[in-house]
Amino acid sequence: xxxxxxxxxxxxxxxxxxxxxxxxxxxxxxxxxxxxxxxxxxxxxxxxxxxxxxxxxxxxxxxxxxxxxxxxxxxxxxxxxxxxxxxxxxxxxxxxxxxxxxxxxxxxxxxxxxxxxxxxxxxxxxxxxxxxxxxxxxxxxxxxxxxxxxxxxxxxxxxxxxxxxxxxxxxxxxxxxxxxxxxxxxxxxxxxxxxxxxxxxxxxxxxxxxxxxxxxxxxxxxxxxxxxxxxxxxxxxxxxxxxxxxxxxxxxxxxxxxxxxxxxxxxxxxxxxxxxxxxxxxxxxxxxxxxxxxxxxxxxxxxxxxxxxxxxxxxxxxxxxxxxxxxxxxxxxxxxxxxxxxxxxxxxxxxx
Length: 352
Description:
Layout: E1 4-12, E2 18-19, H1 20-23, H2 31-38, E3 42-43, H3 52-67, E4 76-80, H4 91-98, E5 106-109, H5 115-129, E6 135-141, H6 152-155, H7 165-173, H8 175-178, E7 184-192, E8 199-207, E9 215-216, H9 230-234, E10 241-242, H10 244-265, E11 275-278, H11 283-293, H12 304-307, H13 314-324, E12 333-340, E13 344-351
Parallel strand pairs: 4-5, 4-6, 11-12
Antiparallel strand pairs: 1-7, 2-3, 6-7, 8-13, 9-10, 12-13
């Protein structure tokens, strides 16, 4: 029986690009330093008042147009984000309302950067069970809210001035994390493939709560009463903490192992896969995964230089670009792979 496939895609990023040189105005960094460690050259940031559902509307509208379907044809929304518009409710119902399709099921999932392999398995299950026919799958993030600076006009190149030593010191304390993330949204319209052997094939998914402290937010949670305190904000406990070197090592080990295991289970050789669409967290990770899988560079494309890490949106943004540029086509065998906070990780196979 055929599985779900992608019949339309779209993406959206807010505002003008923010270069590495712009970040160097508020912390001790440089274009050379950032590119050498991450491969990132620029990223985009939302304005105050813009939430992930706002970015998602733009991406979803493009995806629906690409698919040639109306918003009213959608009968299920899956919304992946780790930066929701509100602590609750989720962003899925907000997107449905903004698209004029209130009333349909809207599910938020929280696998962070690893959301897409999970989402494909979930979407396939919904379609196979008869619970849905046309699914709008969205990944959208607004990381601006945890950036460690207040001089946004300087970062956006709208003003030129020296920032205070205290502000500079604070931003520099979180430099390793702050240079990585950007904001953006991607959407895909999913339906059952018309080809007997087409669409979603399988996924292999994992989680490890023992390693949660590799990437997490220590404050602003319901272990505390109240769940947000002035002391936590003053201590910057709303800004994620990341064990970068250890996280990189885990990503390389787990992703290559998971892809090989998934392929072996389904009798597919990694070299038979036409394109590996990997989460764009760090170019160093994806290069190491490519080497571990022994596949050529052109099979693991990258766009992190232009967007940074948009978490749940990265795979969707890259997929949309590859589709529109004709670099992935009908009949291609794709492997989506990602690791994110949780830790969650996994890989999914899909034939367009």
